């Protein structure tokens, strides 16, 4: 069983706080909106919930409950507010649904796209790239759903990982070195994606504008088991770009590149964890990495002056976990579909032992 935790930047001394969102089954993901005022959660109970997070009183008020999926909902993602109040969700039912709020606290479906298998991860692009949503699926493909100028939706789908794709993240629009070389900002930003899959690989993709296609730019080989999550760090124009990846092999790898036109990625390893690592999240300026592990802990990491990554905080008590066990899985009978999807079956729910979520706050350091 897993509590997925989200790190957000707030000036508060509170280390963490947990609350029960009232889901009827396991909570798989949560996401703060752009302003850090609303929280979206999703669960195996097939529902998405929206909460108003009030820091002053440490209360969480339920604003809306969204239902539209026919299976466990794996992930939720907010779009940038310049496009309106828009939320996306993905599910084992093979569907990605984009929701829009209008009027307040009333959510309606504006677009739906179906893959051939479970959709495991989603991520909205930086606002500079328009309203685009990348989706990672167990059918081995990534789809990029984009709202065009004529108010129609376009889907660009491509093969990504053998067996299945588990996670996807967008590269930042700010190129490396822009802080010291403002001329770098004069060129249009390059659309790039990073993905992680069941082939144990991390792959980097570049969009070729003139050909309207995604090209494989680099394959990063460093994990020995399924890559569960990838996260491209936000950029403030420092002379390098950073990607984090985590795996079923109990490791987190940090990849750094100093020139986006050169395929030279330098690999750093965090100390080995005691359980599979499932989720990664960067702070707003990309200097702190939150790591969610299969032993029910969340740890925060920061790069020291000597280039080594140091643990600066830890939340949660380590729980006993079977090696290689799915953190959402307390079933006595294995699911034959999990070999394909990497997720519990929609028809066979894991035993719900925890439904709470945890908000982790840090000082900006």
On the 0 to 100 scale, the average pLDDT is 84
Q: Briefly note the structural class of the backbone.
A: mainly beta
Major sheet attributes: 4 strands, antiparallel
Q: Which strand order do you get reading across the main beta sheet? A: 3-4-5-6
* Broad shape: globular
Oligomer description: single chain
- SS elements, strand count: 27
Using only C-alpha atoms, the radius of gyration works out to 19 Å
What is the helix content? Answer: under 10%
N-to-C CA distance? 32 Å
* Number of helices, where a helix is a run of at least 4 consecutive DSSP H or I residues: 1
Describe the structure.
With 365 residues, the chain is an all-beta fold. Helices cover 1% and strands 47% of the residues. The protein has one helix and 27 strands. It has a four-stranded antiparallel sheet with strand order 3-4-5-6, with no helix packed on it. The protein has a four-stranded antiparallel sheet with strand order 7-8-9-10, with no helix packed on it. It is globular and about 45 Å long. The protein starts with 5 loop residues before the first strand and ends with a strand. The relative contact order is 0.16. The N terminus and C terminus are likely disordered.
């Amino acid at each position: 069983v897993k509590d997925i935790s989200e790190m957000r930047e707030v000036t508060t001394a509170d280390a963490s706080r947990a609350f029960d969102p009232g889901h009827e089954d396991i909570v798989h993901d949560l996401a703060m909106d752009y302003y850090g005022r609303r929280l979206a959660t999703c669960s195996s109970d097939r529902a998405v919930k929206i909460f108003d997070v009030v820091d002053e009183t440490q209360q969480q008020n339920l604003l809306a409950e969204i239902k539209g999926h026919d299976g466990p909902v794996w992930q939720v993602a907010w779009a940038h507010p310049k496009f309106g109040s828009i939320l996306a969700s993905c599910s084992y039912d093979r569907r990605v649904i984009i929701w829009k709020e209008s009027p307040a606290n009333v959510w309606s479906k504006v677009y739906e796209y179906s893959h051939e298998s479970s959709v495991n991860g989603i991520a909205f692009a930086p606002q500079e790239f328009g309203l685009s949503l990348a989706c990672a699926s167990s059918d081995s493909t990534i789809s990029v759903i984009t709202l065009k100028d004529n108010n129609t939706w376009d889907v660009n789908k491509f093969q990504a990982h053998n067996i299945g794709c588990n996670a996807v993240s967008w590269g930042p629009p700010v190129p490396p070195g822009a802080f010291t070389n403002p001329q770098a900002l004069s060129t249009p930003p390059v659309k790039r994606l990073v993905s992680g899959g069941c082939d144990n690989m991390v792959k980097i993709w570049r969009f070729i504008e003139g050909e309207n296609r995604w090209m494989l730019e680099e394959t990063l080989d460093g994990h020995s088991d399924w890559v569960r999550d990838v996260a491209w760090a936000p950029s403030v124009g420092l002379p390098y770009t950073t990607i984090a990846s985590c795996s079923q092999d109990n490791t987190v790898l940090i990849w750094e590149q100093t020139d986006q036109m050169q395929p030279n990625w330098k690999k750093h390893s965090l100390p080995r964890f005691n359980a599979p690592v499932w989720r990664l999240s960067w702070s707003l300026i990309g200097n702190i990495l939150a790591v969610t592990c299969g032993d029910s802990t969340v740890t925060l990491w920061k790069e020291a002056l000597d280039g080594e990554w140091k643990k600066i905080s830890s939340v949660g008590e380590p729980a006993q976990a079977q090696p290689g066990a799915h953190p959402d899985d307390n079933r006595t009978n294995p699911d034959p579909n999990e070999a394909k999807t990497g997720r519990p079956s929609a028809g066979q729910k894991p035993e719900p032992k925890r439904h709470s979520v945890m908000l982790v706050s840090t000082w900006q350091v």
